[in-house]
Design a protein that fits this description.
The chain contains three helices and four strands; from the N terminus they run E-H-E-E-H-H-E. The protein has 100 residues and is an alpha+beta fold. The chain has a single domain, classed as Alpha-Beta Plaits, CATH 3.30.70. Strands 2-3-1-4 form a four-stranded antiparallel β-sheet. The longest helix has 14 residues.
Length: 100
């Protein structure tokens, strides 16, 4: 990763049963975050290791702090957090990294 870039990652587990319509709907909504300006290298991932209890991951990169802050303040992101994330995610770990 190039210096100045930021990688935003989150590992999470949903309140929905595995394979349910609720799970599928949430993941589809999460994928739409990739369309927010400034989001690069978006990936929605499924956990395969039994080493933790999280089931999914999202990772994305931003060119710089300004792009990262723009994402955090974007109305689509704020709406997703308020309407979906807070209600449907049972546990998560968020990590934001800057290249050294």
């Amino acid at each position: 990763m190039i210096e100045g870039r930021i990688r935003h990652t989150v590992a999470f587990t949903l309140a929905h049963p595995a394979g349910s319509t609720g799970e599928q709907d949430f993941l589809a909504a999460a994928e739409r975050l990739a369309a927010i300006p400034g989001v690069e290298a978006f990936e929605l991932l499924a956990e395969v290791s039994p080493k933790n209890g999280y089931r999914f991951g999202i990772t994305m990169e931003f060119a710089d702090r300004s792009a990262y802050e723009g994402y955090n303040e974007h109305p689509d992101h704020l709406r997703f957090v308020q309407e979906r994330w807070l209600a449907e995610v049972s546990d998560f770990l968020e990590l934001d990294y800057a290249a050294r």
